[in-house]
Amino acid sequence: MKFKFPFFSHHIFFLLVLLYKPPCPAASGGGSWSLLLPSVGISAMHMQLLPTDRVVIYDRTDFGTSNISLPQGKCRPNSTDCSAHSVEYNIACNSVRALMVFTNIWCSSGTLMPDGDLVQTGGWSDGDHVVRIYKSCDYCDWQEIPSGLSQPRWYATNHILPDGRQIIIGGRQSFNYEFYPKLSTTETDFFLMFLVQTNEPNVENNLYPFVFLNTDGNLFIYANYRGILFDYVRNKVVRTFPAIPGGDPRNYPSTGSAVLLPLRIVRGNVESVEVLVCGGAPRDAYKNANNGKFDRALDSCGRLKISDPDPQWITETMPLARVMGDMLLLPNGDVLIINGNIAPAGNYILFVVHQEVPSEGIWVRIR
User: Fold this and answer.
1) In the predicted model, is pLDDT for residue 231 greater than 90?
2) Dihedral, CA atoms, 149, 154, 156, 159, nearest 10 degrees?
3) Among 111, 218, 215, residue whose Cα is nearest residue 164
4) Furthest C-alpha separation in the chain
5) Which are the contacts of 342, defined by CB distance < 8 A and separation ≥ 6?
6) 125 — phi, psi (to 5°)?
7) What is the residue-wise DSSP string for 69-123?
8) Using one digit for the tens of pLDDT, what is the confidence trace for 71-90?
9) Which of 3, 48, 133, 235 is least buried, going by the fewest C-beta atoms within 10 A?
10) pLDDT of residue 225
11) Is residue 125 helix, strand or coil?
């Protein structure tokens, strides 16, 4: 049997053929790197991707001039430094815009607020009590609140809370926590004994504590070599976890890293909550380094199910010792560990998390 198509049907058929695009083949080489800009003008001590698909970058202000000037001949107040120590990178336009940051943000902390604003707190010297707010737009710049913090915050940790505020925990010689924004003008800071207990004289090892929001609304706080579950509303430790095997420090200046592993939901409930802590340094490494002896970084990782009735650490060994590494959760649930020291340049580690069998893990070294 022969079919006859009207003239317009022929045209529609051929139009559909022309518009059809077969699926893109998988990249055989796994992608490639390309240089977008030779320089953004400053060092990226801190960097944050914003909801606007722009990236704000900032660096300390007391280490000399940068390689990018402030616009319109501006200079920092009471200074001959007319260079920028913060920039915004526009991904779509592949361009950089200089920003004015007034106070020193060296080893500060911060997090994104629910409305997309970056709230950045503390730092060194004139910046230790400062709250800085950055709203991303074509003409936006840093806004600074000189006395936004109750206590100095240098090497503190910030975490967003369910009510939209952020909690700011610790910092050098700050054994307390506070919130931003404050609920009232009289609200101040709150003492946290755990930070005293984990502080080592002349070494500390409890700076930049690891903080994760648990599914019960409490905070998991890890400092030095152990962690607690903390009710920040009642200022009460509700659970104390066992020390990580070996008892070596994992926080700054020993500087390991940590992530909250992906949550598995079964029948509407979270099945378990597990934290992974990797790298760090031997207990006496800081003192030894000051005397010219440099210890090898730790090559161990510990996993702790903080949701278990009787949680115990499960330890694994990385193929490379690592300190000051970065850990990133990937969309497929893997954990990427990159950067750091005491590891050959250019290498990275992929940690494949098997949550069905907690004791299993695969370390893959990729060149």
Assistant:
1) yes
2) 50
3) 111
4) 94
5) 296, 297, 320, 321, 322, 323
6) 55, -120
7) BPGGG---TTSS--B-SEEEEETTTTEEEEE---S--TT-EEEE-TTS-EEEE--
8) 998 998 888 999 999 999 99
9) 3
10) 97
11) helix
| Whether residue 100 has pLDDT greater than 80 | yes
141-170 average pLDDT score: 97
CA-to-CA dists, residue 67 to 38, 113, 281, angstroms = 12, 30, 34
The Cα 80–Cα 112 span in angstroms is 32
DSSP characters for 261-302?
PPP-EETTEE---EEEEE----TTHHHHHHTT--PPPP-EEE
Q: Which amino acid is at 130?
A: V
- State the pLDDT at residue 17: 35
* Buried-state track 299-338, b at ≥16 Cβ within 10 A, e below 16: bbbbbbbbbeeebebbebebebbbbbbebeeeeeeebebe
Please report, as a single letter, which amino acid is at residue 159.
Answer: H
Rg (CA), the chain: 25
More confident residue, 351 or 188: 188
Q: What one-character DSSP code corresponds to residue 147?
A: T
Which tens digit of pLDDT belongs to each residue from 1-13?
Answer: 444 434 334 443 3
Rounded to whole angstroms, how far apart are CA atoms 5 and 290? 86
Q: Is the pLDDT of residue 157 over 70?
A: yes
DSSP 3-state of 21:
coil
Q: How many alpha carbons lie under 13 Å from residue 123 in its C-beta half-sphere?
A: 27
